[in-house]
Amino acid sequence: MPPLKAPQDCETMQDLRVQIDRLDQQLVDMLRTRARYIDRASQLKPGEGLPARIPDRVEEVVANVRAKAGQSGLDPDLAEQLWRILIDWSIAREERVLGRD
Length: 101
Prior knowledge:
Helix content: over 70%
CATH class: Mainly Alpha
Number of helices: 3
Strand content: under 5%
């Protein structure tokens, strides 16, 4: 598959929508991969005596994402909001395997 066009290289709304749809597919694929890591965490945590939710780790992940967002020009508030949803979903997924702590 050819690389995505830069936004400024899209000549029509149809062309732009094709690029957005391709990007959305990449995001879905990346989220699917992240979910696989979460599934692995739910396998590893019991052996290390760890609960699904580790508040310090949650805040570390959010701080890292906010910093990376700011460095890349993405609104850090938007990144934090999205990641908190993603983290809550991930913890709920782990809790189904581990049980609530």
